[in-house]
Amino acid sequence: MDYLIVKSMDNGLEEILIDIDYDSFSYDYEKNTSRSISFGVRKTKNNEVSFNILGNEAIITYRGQQFVVKKCVPKVVGAEFSKQVTAQHICYTIQDHVQYEVKTGEKNYSIHEALDFAICGNKLGFTFQVIGAFPTVKLENLGDKNALELINLFIEKFNAILFADNKRLCFYNEATWYQETEKQFRYLYNTEDISLDINTDNLKTVIKCYGKQKENADKLTGDNKYQAVVTYVSPNKEIYGYRMANSKSTDTITNNTDLLMFAKEQIMDIPETSLSLTYRGTENITERDIWFLRHEPLGFETEVYVTRLKTGHPFSVKPQEVGFSNARRDMVRIQAQMASQLKETTQKANKINTYSTMVTNAYDARILTEVVGVVNGD
Fold this sequence. Notes:
Elements lengths: L3 E4 L6 E4 L2 E11 L3 E9 L5 H6 L5 E4 L2 E13 L2 E10 L8 E12 L1 H9 L7 E5 L5 E10 H12 L2 E2 L5 E5 L1 H4 L1 E8 L7 E6 L6 E5 L18 E5 L3 H4 L7 E2 L6 H9 L7 E8 L9 E7 L4 E12 L8 E5 L3 H50 L1
């Protein structure tokens, strides 16, 4: 249902919220980061009850999902009373459960074991479901954090995607989360603007990493204290130069082969890239979509994975704003195409310069011949 239903914090009152400014409504999603709604509403004689119970910690239900009001700003202009509301998905209230217990030492965990430990005994009604296969990972001194902090740790370590169905926390691997749509974003067909933000502030090409310390490390100095030490130099050093990152260490690796793999994951050796566009077509875009981006002027022809969405309310006519992953594995194709496009443009420019030089030389030669001919004619 597209209507918004508001419930008071104590669950005593529940009403359909009307007289919303639907043009101000926005559903905002960013993968593994945020999921919220925001809107403005004015007080009228038709919504007095629902308007009054709309405040911090009230629950708003939209399309079957519950959102908890975290920001409510009342505003009075003349005789008009309004509120600007921002509500986060209810899944983030898992932070109100804390796992005080600590599993000391290092241990291999499955994602089921880790999640069960993080939310077991919670009195908030949260459950979890795992969709897809995940490897076990090593975790150390697990616990003494709120459940949201632990879940964010698991998302990183297991490379999982969280998308909750109210208080049922669903964890997907990438293969089960994303779905092919066979749909296209195409320049001047269903999108007119595209923004490509490239940032090299955090780009590094060299890093030194240390593995687990030796048992008699206190008697040793320098690199000799560690069972494994590597310095990784990215091939992209040839492009971006020698840019050193701060060293990293891990107590779980004892050989150089595994440590080298670890080192490669610790630096961003390509520019951070963020791609976004405004979609003006009629087909709905969802959080799980894979689309094909075709943009002739920029030379893009590649699959893109939706990671950000800004969607208006169905009662308004706002276009969807879409963002795509800036993770290394998702953007490398676009960056490669950018490099190819730049190379092609450079080659064309070189050819133009060559032709221009040839024409200029020929023209100069013709001028010189004509001038010399005139002189000789005298």
